[in-house]
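Cross-posting from the chemistry board since nobody answered there.

I work mostly on the small-molecule side, so proteins are not my area. We synthesized 2-oxoglutaric acid and want a rough idea of how it might sit in this target. Sequence and SMILES are below. Is it possible to get a predicted 3D structure of the two together?
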Amino acid sequence: MRYETMSPTTLDLFADDEPQQTPRREQIGEQSYVLRGFALPLLDRLLPALEAVLLAAPFRQMVTPGGFTMSVALSSCGTLGWTTDRSGYRYTRHDPQTGQPWPAMPPAFFELAQAAAREAGFTDFVPDSCLINRYIPGAKMSLHQDKNEGSYAAPIVSVSLGLPAMFQFGGFERSDKTQRVPLFHGDVVVWGGVDRLRYHGVLPIKDGQHPQLGEQRINFTFRVAG
Ligand SMILES: O=C(O)CCC(=O)C(=O)O
């Protein structure tokens, strides 16, 4: 796929149609890009692989250290899975719900993450963790930094499937102004290097039905955690 860098999309999320997913790369930070439609060619492999992962490690709603139940349901695959409970945020080798190791990262997931990182200028990305987030309408993710990883050298690769979302991409303080970036089925956001610790979040998902995934948005967040 050939990518050209364009200025960020400012489409109305509430318009009737999704924009044409012509492959293009939009720069949203010095080392941050949205790769429009980048995951679409791999969907036929991604969706059955996701189903298999979820059979072994079903979605569940986790509790934050502050005692709040997250509106987003989570699962993971890869060597390390991100978890949260009353004792804190961390990565574990075992799924706390089943006691089993997290399911292996499917090859299609790994290939997608590596190719997207490369497209954004990060070579040799070898993720050991894929957090799988499931948003139903109303679910959101508050602004946060990804800081539970052993090093911040590797980028974050974040894949959107299903219902659209409004991604917030901020600065290095929670109070910094945020850009609002509409994300659609198949889009991939990559941020790293000088942008690795930028605050980011997702505004509440609007009601809707996605033709392939129904009433939900699925996000894969790939990281080097260990
Ligand atoms: O759902 C998204 O697009 C972002 C997910 C995220 O920020 C996270 O899992 O840390």
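Reply from a structural biologist on the board:
Welcome over. Reading the output above for you: The domain at 25-223 is CATH 2.60.120.590 (Jelly Rolls). The chain has one domain: 25-223. Happy to explain the token format if needed.
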